[in-house]
Amino acid sequence: MKHTTPLFDWYSAAADDTARYAIGRRGADPLVVVGLNPSRADRWRSDTTISKVAGFAQRLGHDGFVVVNLYPLRATCPDDLPARVDA
Question: 10 forms bridges with which residues in the sheet?
Answer without folding.
Answer: 24
